[in-house]
Write a structure and sequence with these properties.
By secondary structure, this protein is mainly β. Helix content is 0%, strand content 62%. The protein has no helices and 14 strands. The strands form 2 sheets. It has a 12-stranded antiparallel β-barrel with strand order 1-4-5-6-7-8-9-10-11-12-13-14.
């Protein structure tokens, strides 16, 4: 699921999903990544194993953009392919970068009953981004997120994010997740090391701290 990855830029190096600053002219771009674990909002979607990911984006000078992103997913018993489709609009207003969009998360076979849809809004000011995602299909959850990016010495970057999932179902527990990523752009690829933590009493979700490496390329 690509949605938060663009909010933190290099944090998950998969996009997504969704919080990018759009170019001032129409352009097509592609991205590819190899990660040692596919982690989304603090939860592994590859059974703590590696994932190969990639996508394509088209950004128009008007601010309109569309794109797709793919990854293998693994429950431990079954392997499947996730593909996300999204459309959005980015604009600047009173010194703020505003991004509004719609994403569908889809699975080819085993997990097709998990297909769902989110709408989102992201507001960026300098190095800070605030986001809200609303699942309007399967889960009926609201995800609130904040992200901060900064430069470190030796051309390193640090990206921090904090997210909170509000579950509508009566008696269901909310979920808190956080991540920190140190990344560096090399001559040929971008590399990053990420640590994530999820804190939840929700059924099927365990408190967990995960670490993963990412190697990505945009072209």
């Amino acid at each position: 699921m690509k949605a938060l990855s663009k909010a933190v830029a290099i944090a998950s190096l998969v996009s997504a999903g969704a919080l990018t600053t759009h170019a001032a002219q129409a352009e097509v771009s592609f991205n590819a990544a190899l990660v040692t674990d596919y982690v989304f909002r603090g939860v592994s979607y590859s059974d703590n194993g590696p994932a190969l990911q990639g996508g394509a984006d088209y950004a128009h000078e008007s601010g309109l953009y569309v794109g797709t992103w793919l990854s293998n997913v693994d429950s431990g018993a079954d392997t499947d392919i996730e593909y996300d489709l999204y459309v959005g609009y980015g604009m600047e207003m009173n010194g703020l970068e505003i991004d509004l969009g719609y994403t569908t998360y889809n699975y080819l076979d085993t997990f097709s009953d998990q297909n769902t849809t989110e709408i989102y809004a992201n507001v960026t000011k300098d190095a800070f981004t605030a986001s809200i995602y609303r699942d309007i299909d399967l889960w009926e959850t609201t995800y609130l997120a904040g992200a901060y990016s900064m430069e470190l010495p030796n051309e390193l970057t640090l990206d921090l994010s904090l997210g909170y999932t509000l579950v509508d179902e009566d008696g269901a527990d909310d979920i808190l997740d956080m991540s920190a990523t140190v990344g560096k752009s090399l001559e040929m690829v971008d590399v990053a090391f990420t640590v994530t933590n999820v804190d939840s009493d929700a059924a099927g979700t365990e408190d967990d701290t995960l670490f993963f490496l990412s190697v990505s390329k945009e072209f």
